[in-house]
Prior knowledge:
- The protein is an alpha+beta fold.
- The chain has 3 domains: 3-134, CATH 2.40.50.180; 149-311, CATH 2.40.50.180; 323-472, CATH 2.40.50.180.
- It has 10 helices and 32 strands.
- The radius of gyration is 26 Å and the shape is globular.
Amino acid sequence: MSASSRQRLxxxxxxxxxxxxASAVAEVIRAPKVTRxxxxxxxxxxxxxxRGQVVPVVSLNSLLGREARAAxxxxxxxxxxxxxxxxxxxxxxxxxxxxxxxxxxxxxxxxADGARWIDLxxxxxxxxxxxxxxxxxxxxxxxxPVADETQRVVERAYLGFDLAGQAYALPLEVVSEVxxxxxxxxxxxxxxxxxxxxxxxxxxxxxxxxxxxxxxxxDDAPQGGERLVIIHIGGHALGLIVDRISAVLRVPxxxxxxxxxxxxxxxxxxxxxxxxxxxxxxxxxxxxxPEKVLADQxxxxxxxxxxxxxxPTVADxxxxxxxxxxxxxxxxxxxxxxxxxxxxxxxxxxxTLTRLPKAPAYVQGVMNLRGRVVPVIDQRQRFSVEGxxxxxxxxxxxxxxxxxxxxAVDAVASILxxxxxxxxxxxxxADPAGQVFDRAVERDGEVILLIxxxxxxxxxxxxxxxxxxxxxS
Length: 473
């Protein structure tokens, strides 16, 4: 390579200039949205999605022993896998002679102390205690934990939601996704009031219905908090707008009973098939019958106009098998996913929890869940989330083997249905003791890290045993 063809990229890190070989740079992008990775090294700002890969974003200021700050640009280094360096700005790209061109893995730092070479790999290794420079294999992580079939045989799973201050539920198996209500819903002329309109959803036109009007309730819904529940029934897909999502419920079959006649009077007639009797006298939840929703004359005619019935094919069946659903929980400004199959239920946080004497601070206490004492772990503290959580909070109950625990989160944000081809390996940058993320998925420019429930429980169990033993000694 001739001297005239050699180039170096110079960037800003605070008041210092840092030069690197242009040949080591894949591209420079505007600072993207990053998802913070709990238990990661101090220099790791988070991860972002870039053309099919989850890319770690590292603060150059922090690597140089300076205070990290909001980045203006991210330099994507040509590595396998790529690494992003967050910088304060780009100074120049210019041709240089071979003598002053940094080689791959080296940085030329020029600040008040003069110019000197920095070994980038050594800096990464020094600050990343578990730096491996690699990604986990999504194949190695597997498709997720195997459900405890012994427990599942006698229990039914439901998605709970609220309408006009009343509690309702749908069988979880018909719910493919829960998301925000689309900002663009196209209204159709001369249609029933129950149809809000249609929206584009991946490769299909999705009818959007008002669950309130469907059940004969007032359509005066709260503004801003509505959620869209996408269900698949009899070869059809439709979206139901509900006031808010309340919980994921797994309840014994003996808590199901026939719906009293008063539930099916008026415009909501015959939509409610059964009721769930909640434990501890906390009332009942009306369970909608998906088949009876589909049989509603208004709904049936709308579906016939908007989308014809889909005949299931072998390819459809195979695709369904290759899709996974995740409960997306909110912790501060970040969102993380747990496989639906591993979640026993999501419940409101009890008003009071029984504190355990000498328990670690991250154990909020224990709660009674249908006769079982379940420890509640403060996941904000475990993931080092700053500030206080909003709202009353939720408890995500997970069981693997003989261990059951509740993880306190700020809220349940959504339910995602993800094709296997969309799943990405998570970066392997965290403390080995905190490797709780095995995969990731990108949605609307945001990386949602997916939690391995077994790793989460194993870590919680190991830390509890360690801390309680240390307290007792």
